[in-house]
Amino acid sequence: MTLKKIHPDKDKLNQIVTEARRNQELREQSYRGQALKLYPWVCGRCAREFTHKNLVELTVHHKNHDHDDNPSDGSNWELLCLYCHDNEHSRYEETRFGSALTSKAGASVATHNPFADLKALLNNKK
User: What is the DSSP letter of 33?
Assistant: First the structure.
């Protein structure tokens, strides 16, 4: 067996390493990379701590919900775990759209009570 069959081509390996380093630099320049450098790896809501192993579960939340607002000082970011991030966006959507749906003029309100006569029905069964 020749060495070429056991080890990948050196140029190909160098190309892969170079590309991986370039991608890492691009990620670090992104707002997520910047936020991970600025803040400790802890969820801002539940205080769960993160390591390199589970760092993919730590997200950057935009406090004003504008993903284009990325000041380099990180003032619009907070690190949240996946669960707290989902919860934050659910609460935001409820506030933004939920109250508008329930307060519409002329919206029908449920008046039927399916258990209204339950006691009478149970008494008749005895």
Answer: H
